[in-house]
Amino acid sequence: MAVWLWASLLGVVPVLRAAESAAVRVTQAADAFVRTLNESQRRGVQFEFNDAAQRTRWSNLPVSMAKRAGLRLGDLTAEQRAAAMNLLRAALSERGYEKILGIVQSDEVLRRQGNSTVPFGQDEFFISFMGKPSVSAPWMLQFGGHHLALNLTMAGDQGVLTPSLIAVQPAMFEWNGKTVRPMGRETDKALALVQSLDATQRKAAVLAFEMRDLALGPGHDGETIAPEGVQVATFSAAQRQLLLELVAEWSGIIHDAAAQRKLKEIESKLDQTWFAWSGPLEAGKAYFRVQGPTLIIEYAPQRLGGDVTMHIHSMVRDPTNDYGKQFLP
Amino acid sequence: MTRRSISLLGVLAASWWIAAPTGWTHRLDECLQAMRVNVATDRLTLDLDLTPGASVAGQVLALLDLDADGEISATESVDYARRLLRDVAVTLDGRGLSLHVVSADASPLAHLKSGDGRLRIRAHAGWDALGTGTHVLDLTNRHLPSISVYLVNATKPADPALLLGRQVRNPHQSEYRLEFTITRQDATDPSPP
User: What pLDDT score was predicted for residue A119?
Assistant: First the structure.
């Protein structure tokens, strides 16, 4: 009782409650999804927690070029599909869910444009579990397809969403009469940050060479490159805030309890964090990287015919805890 | 150039964009060569991923599938890696180094043709144990320059006695310099296995 009282006074209990409720909420949503499945589908969605092949079976490429496993959304009934999306909603923050939904919708826009034999669209996304959904034991939820790979590892009240590939094409489109930019906030925040740098900082931050792609995209698990650019240790308080708001576009995709914990960790290591920029000082036209001891974010516009601002690849990694390796016994 | 020819070019460009497949969601007409450089006290390790886009895959396959039997054998992969490395010049403190292939693994031919396959090469270059102080590694990659996009990055050494310094590249990253410092003589070998 005394411990509980002290914990309450210190503000620990509300955090624990929020974290616990997230673990319970996600597991309940996973269970609800499984209950809608038939026996064959239950086998199809489930993989062993230590299935190394499934763990790395993700890509930026369309599903016809890089095969995914698990259940394909297009093969689910309306009820099953709604339960799958409800699980994603439970596992992610509101803004994170909105971003992922936007990426799925952008692929549907690609499909509706036609002119391609490649299977695009909102049916071409896959969901799978590694390990049984649990409020205490480690398990993984994978969701992805073309331009999207979410690897969410949960262990009780802890959760990590790395490595994850967040990409989009087209980066801006109309959906039900509204303009959607799934990666619009990070694009604009990055420009605001680089524009906030003084001449000395900018000289250090802007790389004198082209970064035409991600350095640590799919297939580069476990690698860490040397940081480059400007050290955040030189940033003012306002610039640090801009950087944290930019980082939160990736770290905040996961549900709020885990996102808050991750952002605090990143904030505590800001002096060891670097920011690099390659390309023009224009929104969506340049590569940038944020790299700290527990974080690597890369953003790489793709020059694959047409407007580079309409096709963006990005990766978020935690070199110390990808796939929740810290959670494992 | 006349106004008419400029207009014609504009129409052609617009036609190309309209006709270009909207499924153009991955690199087609470029070959990505992404290299990671790992330095240790006694050797250099290069890891190179070569990913040809679908429309230039033929050029790479002509060099890779030499017997044109529709399969990439282990021998063909290693042979190609050796020839590729002849186009990569490396010096340490101004002295030339010889790269030798440790491994070369190619994706199946169908994947390489469609643009989602790659050749992964690991190469080593040995050197005498380096003394303390700053050293300079220079690297130039001249393999398939007309179709290639280059990336080159140093990976973090495992040994804390080996400190990475500046990385300098030309705009296209085909030329690269890495400065690194060894802070004590008994630095252990941090090379990847």
Answer: 87
- Specify the pLDDT at position A117: 74
Mean pLDDT over each residue of chain A, to the nearest integer: 92
Verify that A34 and A126 share a domain, yes or no.
yes
Q: At what angle do helices B57-64 and B74-86 cross, to 10 degrees?
A: 110
A197 and A59 belong to one structural domain: no
**CA distance from start to end of chain B:** 57
Contact list in B for residue A302 (CB cut-off 8 A) is: 27
Give the domain range for residue A228: 179-327
Q: Do A226 and B32 touch (CB under 8 A)?
A: no
* pLDDT band at residue A245 using 50, 70 and 90 as cut-offs: very high
Q: How many domains does chain A have?
A: 2
Tell me: do A250 and A189 sit in the same domain.
yes
Domain presence at residue A136: yes
Residue type for A310, please?
A: M
**B165 min Cα distance to partner chain A (Å):** 9
ipTM for this prediction = 0.83
- The helix (H) or strand (E) run that includes residue B45 is strand B43-52
Classify residue A232: in a domain, yes or no: yes
Contacts of B52 (CB under 8 A, 6+ apart): B31, B32, B59, B60, B61, B112, B115, B117, B118, B147
Indicate whether A22 and A146 sit together in one domain. yes
Q: Chain A residue closest to B34 (CA)?
A: A215
Nearest residue on chain A to B112, judged by CA atoms? Answer: A65
Q: How confident is the model at residue B68 (pLDDT cuts 50, 70, 90)?
A: confident
Per-residue DSSP letters for A272-286? G-EEEEES-SSTTSS
Please indicate, yes or no, if residue A77 is contained in any of the structural domains: yes
Is-contact A295 A247, C-beta < 8 A?
A: yes
> Quick one: tokens of A317?
């990694």
What's the burial of A174, exposed, middle or buried (CB within 10 Å: 0-12/13-18/19+)? exposed
* Co-location of A98 and A212 in the same domain: no
What does the alpha-carbon distance between residue A277 and residue A204 come to, in Å, rounded to a whole number? 9
Judgement on whether residues A96 and A186 belong to the same structural domain of the protein: no
Rounded distance, CA A242 to CA A118, Å? Answer: 39
Q: Name the closest residue on chain A to residue B176, using Cα atoms.
A: A209
B interface mutation test: which of A61, A63, A212 has the most B CBs within 10 A? A212
Residue A173 domain flag: no
Say yes or no: B173 contacts chain A, CB-CB below 8 A: yes
- Looking at the structure, do residues A113 and A196 belong to the same domain, yes or no? no
Each residue of B133-191: pLDDT tens digit? 999 999 999 999 999 999 999 999 988 899 999 999 999 999 999 999 999 766 555 44
pLDDT of residue B71: 87
Task: With CB atoms and an 8 Å threshold, state whether B22 touches A115.
Answer: yes
Domain end point (choices A102, A120, A155): A155
* Same domain flag for A282 and A191: yes
d(CA A83, CA A99): 18
Averaged confidence pLDDT in chain B: 84
Q: Strand, coil or helix: what is A159?
A: strand
